[in-house]
Every structure is written in structure tokens, then in C-alpha cells.
């Protein structure tokens, strides 16, 4: 196993199984948590993440295939691509990202961290990763926050392209867009985001 990256919650490893390279996302122990609670939280979050990926895959969203899960790890398809955050991208890619989010929301899932740092660009199209904060039974608010995060990450021009593609592809998009406008008016999400960092 080779360590590929290390985040706040999980480490990413490359592993070769029967000659095929896979990716393992393993949640690490948090020493400040009581160990029974820590084990339980990691298990629940791992299960929730893998479940959201499976539901998304079944709904036709472009996500890595999940091969197996353990109590604190997910074995998944290794996607060859580059993070959207680190890439140049065009209007077609932006529209595709909007369509993928529309499919995800149509399946009842909010991503929870929908930014260019969690989207891979491949030569077969875009692929959504990192379902660690995903909500499989999402309400309008969680869906609106997915849009809000993208709005804060993109130029105005690109955000509008993204939003248009999303709105065309998701039947309930008008309710989500109305909620987004409300959240922005409230100006409350900023405080919440900072509190969660
Ligand atoms: N299935 C995958 N295929 C290729 N690279 C991946 C895959 N999943 C994650 N990565 C890489 O690992 C990094 C961290 O994974 P991610 O799930 O986003 O965890 P974190 O919660 O640490 O952000 C990503 O930014 C990406 O570069
Ligand atoms: Mg991530």
C-alpha cells in the first residue's frame, strides 16, 4: 500500500490487488475521541459514504465504483484524472458538472462538499469524488448548499453556465434555486461554514 494523500478524516492509499491498482480511503483514528465512540463513528461514516456512492452510481452519476468496504475503509476504482481545481476547464465541462449534480440531487443525495477540489476531469468526462459529507436523504437546504459552494468557487460566467445546465436537468431545481437565494439573503451560511472548518 502506498500513501497517496492525507486529509483531516482519511488517508488515501494505492493498493495493487491481483495486478489491478485500486484506491483505498481509510478513516484514521482520532486519539482525542473515546475509542469505542471513535470506532463507531468511523464505521457509521464509512458506511454512509459508501452507501451514497452506490446510490449515486445506480442513478447513473459518474462516481468511482465501490468494490468493497471494511469497518473504516472503502476500496474503490482508481480514476485517472486531474482535479478540476488544478485544471483549465471549458464551458462543456462546466455544463457536465451541472448535469452530474442534477442526477445526484434527483437521486435524493446532496454531496456536502461540492467544489472543484472534489471533481476529477478525465478523458471520459467528469467524475465526482469524496462523498464523506454526503447526505443520502437530502432536503432542499442541503441541495442549495451544494450550489452555493460551487457559486463561491467559480467565476460568475461559469457559475451561470453550471446553474443553467443543472436547472434544465433537475425537475425540482426551481425550489433549490429559490432556497439558494434565501440562504444568500440570510447571510447565515458563512458563519456556519467557518464554524465547521
Ligand atoms: N477514486 C479516486 N480516484 C483517483 N483519485 C482519488 C479518488 N478518490 C480520491 N482521490 C484523490 O485523493 C484525494 C483525497 O480524497 P477525498 O475523497 O477527496 O478525501 P478528503 O476527505 O481527504 O478530501 C482527492 O483530492 C483525489 O486527488
Ligand atoms: Mg476531498
Present the secondary structure layout.
Elements: E1 2-6, E2 10-17, E3 20-27, H1 35-58, E4 66-69, E5 73-77, E6 82-83, H2 91-106, E7 119-122, E8 125-128, H3 140-153, H4 156-169, H5 173-186, H6 189-196
Antiparallel strand pairs: 1-2, 2-3, 3-5, 4-5, 6-7, 7-8
This protein binds adenosine-5'-diphosphate (ADP) and magnesium ion.
The site of magnesium ion has 3 residues, from loops.
- The main sheet orders its strands as 1-2-3-5-4
Tally of contiguous helical segments:
6
Report the mean per-residue pLDDT as an integer: 94
Number of domains: 2
CATH H-tier superfamily of the largest domain? Transferase(Phosphotransferase) domain 1
Uncertain stretches of 5 or more adjacent residues: none
Bound molecules: adenosine-5'-diphosphate, magnesium ion
Helix content bin: 40-55%
Q: Oligomeric form of this entry?
A: single chain
User: What's the level 1 CATH class of the largest domain?
Assistant: Mainly Alpha
Number of strands: 8
The largest sheet, given as strand count, sense and whether it forms a barrel, is: 5 strands, antiparallel
What is the strand content?
15-25%
CATH topology of the largest domain: Transferase(Phosphotransferase), domain 1
- SSE order in H/E notation? EEEHEEEHEEHHHH
Rounded to an integer in angstroms, the radius of gyration calculated over CA atoms is: 17 Å
Alpha-carbon distance between the termini?
Answer: 29 Å
Amino acid at each position: 500500500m502506498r500513501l497517496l494523500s492525507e486529509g483531516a478524516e482519511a488517508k488515501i492509499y494505492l493498493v495493487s490487488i491481483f495486478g489491478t491498482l485500486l484506491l483505498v480511503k481509510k478513516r484514521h483514528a482520532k486519539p482525542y475521541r473515546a475509542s469505542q465512540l471513535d470506532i463507531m463513528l468511523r464505521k457509521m461514516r464509512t458506511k454512509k459514504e459508501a452507501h451514497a456512492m452506490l446510490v449515486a452510481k445506480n442513478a447513473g452519476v459518474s462516481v468511482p465504483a465501490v468494490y468493497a468496504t471494511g469497518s473504516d475503509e472503502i476500496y474503490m476504482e482508481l480514476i485517472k484524472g486531474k482535479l478540476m481545481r488544478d485544471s483549465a476547464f471549458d464551458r462543456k465541462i462546466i455544463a457536465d458538472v451541472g448535469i452530474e449534480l442534477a442526477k445526484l440531487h434527483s437521486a435524493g443525495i446532496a454531496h456536502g462538499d461540492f467544489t472543484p477540489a472534489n471533481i476529477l476531469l478525465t478523458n471520459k468526462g467528469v467524475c465526482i469524488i469524496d462523498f464523506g459529507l454526503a447526505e443520502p436523504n437530502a432536503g432542499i437546504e442541503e441541495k442549495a448548499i451544494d450550489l452555493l459552494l460551487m457559486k463561491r468557487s467559480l467565476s460568475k460566467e461559469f457559475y451561470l453556465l453550471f446553474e443553467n445546465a443543472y436547472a434544465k436537468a433537475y425537475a425540482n431545481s426551481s425550489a433549490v434555486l429559490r432556497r439558494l437565494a434565501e440562504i444568500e439573503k440570510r447571510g447565515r451560511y458563512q458563519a456556519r461554514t467557518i464554524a465547521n472548518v
